[in-house]
Specification:
globular, 3 domains, Serine Threonine Protein Phosphatase 5, Tetratricopeptide repeat
Length: 191
């Protein structure tokens, strides 16, 4: 097995490009069951599945994710991918259900908190949305979640938190047209 012969692979200082190329090649050439049996390479098996999932759409993608969840129910990764897919498809009930299942076994799972927070914001459940989005630690990483948290703070009239959060965002996010109205509301009310 590769990992057994090259014990230091996981800790080696290999450029990301070379490591990525090697792992993609290994994921294609080494049988999935072999990869899964080695802790150092188990992630490659998941990456190969993720790549296959990217090629699927709609019902086929949902069915494959449901199959993976049924096959390995304790693996939260596939449930989170399904939750994100359901959220993007506008199936909020399914998205929140899958995120909640993950949170039952992993209460601090940041991706599950983020997904649930996005659903709650869409449903205008501002208090719960703000709690989940802030707890995820990922609210400032992209415009969708940043807008959801900022809008939650504005709707709750939590001006100081809104102002602090707005100031923490990158210019790229803060200068988006969808943020301008929210930013003006925060500026008018923060004092």
């Amino acid at each position: 097995m590769i990992e057994e012969r090259f014990q230091a692979y996981s800790e080696a200082k290999i450029s990301p490009e070379i490591r990525g190329d090697f792992e993609r090649l290994a994921g294609k050439l080494i049988p999935r069951w072999t990869l899964e049996s080695s802790p150092g390479f188990a992630q490659l098996a998941s990456q190969a599945v993720e790549a296959r999932l990217e090629s699927l759409s709609g019902i086929a993608k949902r069915r494959e994710l449901e199959r993976l969840i049924a096959q390995v129910p304790e693996e939260s990764r596939w449930r989170l991918v399904l939750a994100r897919f359901e959220l993007d498809e506008g199936r909020r009930d399914e998205a929140i259900r899958n995120a909640t299942v993950v949170l039952e076994s992993q209460p601090g799972n940041t991706e599950a908190l983020l997904i649930r927070g996005l659903v709650l914001a869409t449903d205008e459940e501002w208090q719960s949305a703000a709690e989940d989005l802030a707890a995820s630690g990922k609210a400032g990483e992209g415009p969708r979640q940043a807008e959801a948290l900022l809008r939650s703070y504005v709707e709750l009239e939590r001006w100081r938190e809104a102002s602090t959060f707005l100031a923490s965002l990158s210019d790229e996010i803060r200068n988006r047209p969808s943020f301008q109205d929210l930013a003006r509301q925060v500026e008018r009310n923060e004092n």
